[in-house]
Amino acid sequence: MAQQYKALQSQVNTEPLKKKGSSKGLKKFFVKIKRSNSQSMDDKLEDFKRSGFRSTAGPRLGWSKELNDLGQPFGRWDKDRVALWLHVLGLSMYVGECKRWVKNGDHLLQATSHDLEKELGIRNHFHRKKLQLALQAISAETRSPVSELDHTWVTRWLDDIGLPQYKDQFSEARIDGRMLHCLTVDDLIGLKVTNQLHHLSLQRGIQVLRMNNFSPSCLKRRPTPDEDVLQNCPGKVVLWTNHRVMEWLRNIDLSEYAPNLRGSGVHGALMVLEPRFGAEIFATILSIPSNKTLLRRHLSTHFVTLIGSAVQQQKREVEAQPGYTPLTPSLRVKVKKGIFRNLKSDDRDDFVCPIDPRSDRDLCLNGGGSLPRKDAVDAPKEEDEHLLARDNRYLDNVPTSDV
Asked: d(Cα 188, Cα 167) in Å, to the nearest integer?
């Protein structure tokens, strides 16, 4: 009797388990399917080899130059090839109109600004300027490192110089390396950049790019393991990004104020190359209270030690000049309404960073603390002159701002 009771109890306990297991039969079926698929994929992974480039890396890595390697001048390109070039340039929104209206490359080269606006529907003056600069460069049949920097690289560069708040405006305007090289004050106002300190940040950022032949990897984002004591080294500091400056602030026991540099536009080139940027405005940007004189003195001492006495002396000489206006974080650029300027070779003073090699030499030092400079950029390069002077018809009647 006891044995029959135990057998009956065990039968009752196992029946729910069987039902519970049977309810998951469909789920187990799908699991087996997923596992079989994943196993079959694993068998094919041996034949898969990852290339060195991402699928979205075309324009950023300058694949447009491959279109030029086919040995045919741009003027002889058919409309499909011109449309592909326009897509690689980052102006894919106009490809449809390009295929409809453009006959060949020479037809697009002969187009005026009015034609681009009416026939291709390019009403954004930044897009017209981008296209005209690209046409001027490709018709000159010269290659420059600046043409390898597309608008996605420029948006990342804005992070490096501490101005990420303008990434949307620059991205929508498709600002690339060539446009950055020829950026004007009116362009910045059209991009809603009205802070004078931010103008100077962009100016010195462009200047250091020119000094390094527009190398996309010239800026230093983090300290190197073999970095020596940072004293009197403007040549190193001029390459610092905004993040690297924040790291330096943490190293000198000012980590509490380092986050205040985000969105300030402060980077190494501004600290070294801008004569009006000193320890006083640096402390103001960091929001160090004026009554904390010891902290401000601490920052000033380390700042002068970092950039060197020669650079500091040049900054003091500028301060001593009559009519000197101190730089403040809230200072605004005056907007001239109703004025449209043509971008011609005679209007280079309107550039955010004028193309003048002497301006780069003003703050260059001799000896171990000299600023980094390549022989290739001691003077404006031939392709730069093509962008700015040769065949000015491409840039005639191009308004640089809608304000």
From this structure: 13
Q: Which class for 199: exposed (0-12), middle (13-18), buried (19 or more C-beta within 10 A)?
A: buried
Burial class of residue 185, CB neighbours in 10 A (0-12, 13-18, 19+): buried
Phi first, then psi: what are they for 90, rounded to 5°? 100, 10
d(CA 316, CA 401): 36
Whether the CB-CB separation of 357 and 379 falls below 8 Å is answered with yes
Contact indicator for 174, 151 with CB cutoff of 8 Å = yes
Q: CA 355, CA 329: separation in Å to the nearest integer?
A: 26
Task: Collect all residues with Cβ–Cβ distance below 8 Å to 63 and sequence separation of at least 6.
Answer: 57, 88
Decide: 129 and 343 in contact? Cβ < 8 Å: yes
Q: How many Cα atoms are found within 13 Å in the side-chain-facing hemisphere of 281?
A: 19
Q: How many helices, marked H, and strands, marked E, lie in the chain?
A: 21, 0
pLDDT tens digits for 262-306?
999 999 999 999 999 999 999 999 999 999 999 999 999 999 999
Distances (CA, A) of 106 to 90, 129, 138, 392: 20, 18, 11, 17
For 322-330, the CB contacts below 8 A with 24+ separation are 324/276, 325/276, 326/276, 326/280, 326/281, 327/196, 327/197, 327/200, 327/274, 327/276, 327/277, 327/281, 328/197, 328/281, 328/284, 329/195, 329/197, 329/264, 329/281, 329/284, 329/285, 330/195
pLDDT more than 70, % of the chain = 67
